[in-house]
Amino acid sequence: MEKTVSEAIAYRRSTRVYKEDVLHTKKVKQCLVNASLAPTSSNLQLWEFYHVTNPETLKQLAQACFNQSAAKTAKQLVVVVARKDLWKKRAKANIDFLNKVFDKEDLTEREIKRKKMALSYYTKLIPTIYSDFLGILGYIKFMVFQVIGLFKPVYRQVRQSDMRIVAHKSAGLAAQNFMTSMAAIGYDTCPMEGSDSLRVKQVLDLPRSAEINMVISCGIRDDKGIYGPRFRVPFEQVYFER
């Protein structure tokens, strides 16, 4: 029986050693479908998921992850990739979707207004925020927006580095969806920061513009794969009500 959301979150632990049990690839793939439903900035979905099941590729990626046990004993691996460079393609996909949704003759005044605002968002605002040239345009936009911000609230994260962070935040939300979904069906995961990202990209034949968000090992936890009880700082130290 699949766990509830709260049960899955409580069950999920970073697993460092996996049993020899084989995972059902279709079930893992469905968890990646759930990952693709995660919230994402401007609905641009600047992510890709590489589901690795080939034994030789698993071995190469384990080496790129410094042969840590979480990678070496994993039965499958998922590489979450941030693709900020695909913003034009993803924006166009949103535009095409909006045109299809509002493709009817009897649009209400409210629907006409919504269509106009949405299309303006993807044809004007998104290019303004994401367009850059060697980081120069980003700093010019940053200074302009700082001046505007003296007089009213304004979006300030417009530099190239800011937009990279936005893409990685969205990818991280998708990764969490994936790991929670895996926990819900009794599968275990370990998000690994420790990797040679260049080698990971080479193994997967990714373009230079792609960025590794994280490598997630997958399997069934071995008893020795959980390194002790869970530790969290007291909730009162991180929770603030205003």
Give keywords:
single chain; alpha+beta; globular; four-stranded antiparallel β-sheet; 242 residues
Describe the structure.
The protein is of the alpha+beta class and 242 residues long. It has 9 helices and 4 strands; from the N terminus they run H-H-E-H-H-E-H-H-H-H-E-H-E. The protein has a 4-stranded antiparallel β-sheet with strand order 1-2-4-3, with helices on both faces. The longest helix is centred in the C-terminal third of the chain and has 25 residues. 30% of the residues are buried.
* Global morphology: globular
Strand content: 5-15%
Counting DSSP E segments of at least 2 residues, the number of strands comes to 4
Rg, nearest Å: 21 Å
Q: How would you spell out the order of helices and strands?
A: HHEHHEHHHHEHE
Oligomer: single chain
Q: Give the distance, in angstroms, between the N- and C-terminal Cα atoms.
A: 39 Å
The helix count comes to 9
Regions with little confidence, pLDDT below 50 for 5+ residues? none
| Secondary structure category | alpha+beta
The residue-averaged pLDDT reads 94
Strand order, biggest sheet?
A: 1-2-4-3
> In percent, how helical is the residue content?
40-55%
> Main sheet, how many strands, which sense, barrel?
4 strands, antiparallel
